[in-house]
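#dry-run=false #mode=assembly
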Amino acid sequence: MAPARKTTRPTAQAARQSAEAPAAPLPKMESPIVPHQSIGGRALVAVVAIMTFLAALTTGAVMLVRMNAADWQAEVLREVTIQIRPVDGQVTAAAVTQAAAIARGFAGVSEVRPLSQEESGRLLEPWLGSGLSLDELPVPRVIVVKLAPGAAVDIAGLREALAAKVPGASVDDHRGWIDRMRAIADFVMIGGIIVLGLVIAATILSVNFATRGAMAANRPVIEVLHFIGAQDRFIAGQFQRHFLWLGLKGGAIGGAAAIVLFALIRPVEALIRGNAGAEQFAALFGSITLGFNGYLVILAQIVVIAAVASEASRRTVNQTIAAI
Amino acid sequence: MPDQLGRLLVAGGRWEKRRIGLARPGKTRKVVDWAGANRSAGVVRFENVGLRYGMGQEILRDLTFRIEPNSFQFLTGPSGAGKTSLLKLLFLSLKPTRGLITLFGRDTSTLSSDNLAALRRRIGIVFQDFRLLDHMTTYENVALPFRIMGRDERSYRNEVVELLQWVGLGDRMWALPPVLSGGEKQRAAIARAVVARPHLLLADEPTGNVDPGLGKRLLHLFQELNKSGTSIVIATHDIALMDQFDARRLVLHGGRLHLYD
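#status=ok
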């Protein structure tokens, strides 16, 4: 406030000069109603980013387990093993040839490959050592039978035919392994879904609390808007938009980090291919690629988490107004 | 401020011409009779209003009074007498424990939140602690009532600028509240309260943070607003301020209201 000065009535000339003077730039309404830069807002973005990242990792892991378990089961189901045990009075090599011929005669069988003696010897190396002559031992021979994808092969018929014509032959369709693998995969899946549910619940709660924390700093804004006559939905809308944007920002950061991580796994896998550890890893986990659906689910999570932040802000505004 | 106000009056600023009706000395002052202000009901009507916080004793008891259109009154009383609580009842921040409050002819106990918001737009409030939004410029703070109405900025920009010039903040329009002095904040808060032409202006200790000279100038501003048709209620215990202007006094004492017309 400038000190009071004697008021002088401007002359007409002065008024004209004033009117002709270049107009000073007028101020503009540029600031948002809800302050954008605040410690609470930045903390909320960080919380949303971290929780989205964790939720996306968990989702990705669950989806990978599900996809690989299904692939592995399908792979094993497409293979049947015929085992020919040595029987007195029977030439094992002839029995192998006969059994292979019987297997080839069944519809849906795409490939029949008897393992050579050398291959059988390699299978036994871990137990019997190298340089062993199998001719001296009554070692069973193995025939690998590949089934055409989607074909319904009569395994029971094959089993009966072999039992009738090739003594010492048995068929292993890996059913026991499949059932155990399925049980393990289901267990892992259920565990993963429970962990995912917990992570998503923790995400929603932490985003909710972080939003309320950030909102607490904005209480004066809500009060002023309320007292100058802003309608409740106007105030809630302002905050909802602001916190939706913060949620999307945090979610995009966390989700993008998870997507980059999943996208990098395949190139890294290619880089270390040949390494014994990498081979074991690939054998155990198969392909680590999320695919389109996986990325779509992560994007959906970003939107859901941002919506949670937005809804939490709306509820907090309404509670604040009610408290005022 | 008086000289700035005077300059504006003489120059005939648009805001001044429309709002105050004093733009052309010598002409009959045109006092706006606010549409919607039900004269028979008064601007405010309290009937046997009581207020208590929680289970405590009543801090306001049996308040019965009216605030007429175009009236000017001081609300006074010792500290803790309930002046701020009464102001909160007046701007619908509190609901009475008992009794009837009518604002602009509407019973406030039956209003929806949208209708309450609409009523609040007809009331200008000057808070003791100003309550300016620190992230907004002085201009944006003062223009806020228009913004919440959803009005196009071009329709009110000149009006806000002229009002800011009128209250002596023409060169502080871009400043943020944290860098304003106490007096500047006070004037910005007053400008925000009056910019939307309220029918009722409530001011809580509007001169509490300023020197006597500025307090006198602010009182002059309120008088000018009153002449234009706004009912004014100033809560203060500044006796010297009240002695400068012969107006009705609402005195709160012991939870009861005594009227001195």
